[in-house]
Design goal:
The structure holds two protein chains of two kinds. By secondary structure, chain A is of the alpha+beta class. Chain A has 13 helices and six strands. Helices cover about 60% and strands about 10% of the residues of chain A. Chain A has a four-stranded antiparallel beta sheet with strand order 2-3-1-6. Chain A is elongated, with a radius of gyration of 30 Å. The two termini of chain A are about 60 Å apart. Chain B is elongated, with a radius of gyration of 35 Å. The chains are: A alpha+beta, B alpha+beta. At the A-B interface, helix 5, helix 6, helix 7, strand 6 and helix 9 of A face helix 7, strand 17, helix 11, helix 12 and helix 13 of B.
Chain lengths: ~400, ~550
Amino acid sequence: MEIFKHTNFDFLGKKWPFIIVSLLLTAAGLTSLALKGGPRYGIDFTGGALMDVNFIKRPPAEAIRSALHKKLSGELEVQEISNSQEALISSGAANEQALQIARNDMIAALNASFNPDSGGKLDINNAGQAALSDALRQPLANASVALSDDQLQALAKSITRYRDAHSGLIRNLDELAGVPGVTPQVLNVIKQVCYPGSFNIRSFEFVGPKIGADLRQQAINVVLIALGAMLIYIAFRFEWIYGVAAVIAVFHDTIITIGLFSIFHKQIDLTVIAALLTLVGYSMNDTIVTFDRIRENLKLQIRGSFPHIVNLSINQTLSRTVLTSGLTFLTALSLFLFGGQVLNGFSFALVIGIIIGTYSSIFIASPILVFWQDVADRRKRGARPPAVPSRPQNVAKPVKSVKPVRTAK
Amino acid sequence: MKRHLRLKFFFIVAVILICIYGIIGLPKSKAELVENWNNNIRLGLDLRGGTYLVVQVQQQDAFNAQAGGDAERLKDAMRKANVQFSDVSAEDAKTMEEATNVAISIKGVPATQAGTLRGILSEQFAQWLPTAVNATDYRLTMRPSEALKMWQSVLTQTKNTLDRKVNALGLAEATVQQRRADRDSELLVQLPGVDDTARVKQILQTAAVLEQYEVKSGPFPSRDAALAQTGGILPPGTKLIGQSQANSSGGEGGVYVVARTPILRGTDIRNARPEQGQMGGSWETAFVLSQDAAKKFSAFTGSHIGDRIAIVLDGKVLLAPSIKGQISDNGVIEGMGSQQAASDLALNLNSGSLPAGVKYEQENTVGPSLGADSIKEGFLAGIAGVLAVIVAMLVYYKRSGINATLALILNAIILIACLSYFGAVLTLPGIAGIILTIGMAVDSNVLIFERIREELRAGKAIIPAVDIGFNKAFLTIVDTHITTIVSCAILFLFGSGPVKGFAVTLVIGLMANVFTAVFVSKVIFDWELSRPKPVTALSI
């Protein structure tokens, strides 16, 4: 099967509509960024606390928020995760003292509102193994269920295991009847001591303001260093203008991706930065394949102007470009669809970044090369053929080139 | 040619075997296979559940304590040498940044005794650098080299104490390490598999400084009431200590007036353990004193029967029992509430006290249920992604697609084996890296196959077309891989935790890719083309 056989699209001739689209996207992204006062950073960069709570049946976001406000002050955000009963609760880093106890405060507030009548029992959906075995020890002995300490630990372990394999939630204590070691007698004791709470804390994260500022600075440095390193590498392998063109294209990708994150109101956290860097590498990769072809064709002395050769090279590599991007896109898409909530931002960045990265090597990087050549030619009054970038050891000498004639002023 | 091919073939088989051995060892049963897999593929905190903490050691606590203690010692030394002074006091550092600027100020020393003072300072307080403020006042600052030494030792002591605490908790794989090598005061605590983070955090943060003081009077309902009782000023050699909220039976914690210097310090404790009180009632923590401390303690209790002692933990009075008889080497802290509270306190006392307070700078806890779901989701995404790529390759390149698929699978096996051999930790972003590698790795195959097609189209015979295709694509492949590896290397150098895992898997995957896509794939082609029956058409 072949999709692109002997294609001869005039990419460079039709570059303007695409460049305009790029500019529009960039402008839209920047406008959104300006309106929202910069990117929406995750708590790794701003400092703050984030709790992922899985409910048996999620209460409305408003109810969760008002429950929390009874204990916590300051900014609070409740985000519902679609296709699940989970909610993400985040609080800003208003003051450090509050952050230190944010975890306990959040849990206490949730318990007060959503587990109102615990009756002093242990919440089995948030109990650790040690707490569970401690709570069961005496009551089991009272009910004359003789268990050694090892057996008790094993019992607690199999109960927590069962719970964790079911997304951390036991809806009804009778579910435990099938767990190894839980005899009807034991189950009775469990019912006396425990109750199934209405939620499970899936994860908790908090970042102090100092570390947040550290990480933010680090992320900016990393992206800039990566771009710089790429520029140097390509300038070394090709010519400096190739490096500049590739870096501008990649920068364009990064800006548009960040802009789209702002438009879709998504958070930028550490994993998104990792995705952005991967995209920098990926888009570079794509650009290099095209540039490699341009270099090769220049060496082969194919007839025609520089724009013609660039266009030819893009067409020759088109099949590969589309196929590779398509396949990488498929893997990124499967991450986005199935990879779960933790990787959501990461895979979102990849999905859009791969499309933009592919397109930018054709419609941004290559036109920059042509544009530069144009400028250079015009400066030299069109006397010199396109420069032949190549590695030093086999410089192909332009055979029939006219020596540049410098007309005296 | 044929022999070369056979050699290459055996080489590839050897690589495959080494990789499979690295991943699952030599299992004799299915259970053993699963066990070996679990041992070889180490999961990160985000997949197996656990807690990652960044702890900031409050250096100023230790520096202030040092300055305060030295100020007292200096007073004693000056009195002994009959040096007059109006005041000797420590200037506390408020923040960690100022910790090394702690100072002791000496006021009102007659000029005639300056020489004696200097003698005392240089003999007994060499770590302090004296400067004269005026004719009678001096200011001591810590020598920079001494401050640096102390800073390091506070950090190391804290690290060791936290280490003992996590070990005592039975968290076998937990680690405590310095976060960065430079002058810094942060420790990184990783607690895989911990399922009760709040409790562990509480234990780690407990300084566990246990002191016992002679009670002079009290308890009073508040500080002001205590002061009023003694006429507004504290009697010399005493201080006020509040009662712990947790242990006071309701209401405001009382305030005690106690002797300034403790009878016992935390370091005097040899062993502590949780016990159930008589009549099977409430829990308590029992402790045994070291020999020296026991001597001091029994002398004190023998002569103070009927008086009360205050048991003070981390600057709060836990309880103040009266001395019923001479106590030699053991003691009990009663009323711990629960078994867990009693054993936590015992654990803290046994681990030794922290030289300075600790503050949490960052916490990242992943519950075991989220970790389990992340593995499931990562696995599903991986299967879906790989299947999509394989189907697309088979449809697009027909039989050559099989070649590419074999290379891809081998690529994945090598990648996982490398993770196992290097002892790298697999994180969720790491799984994403593996999946993405599959997508990117196929790029090399596509580049080569497209080249071969081009050569075939240009009318070349099959064998040269394949050779030229591989040769021409090779440089491009190297170029494209290097840029991605550069961006990953930067990510690895500056990134942290899970993100590092991502960079590692991507780099290993891409390196393995050069081997599979260029070398292995070529061998498969050569093998196919070298069969006795001449191949007339290449399925590509």
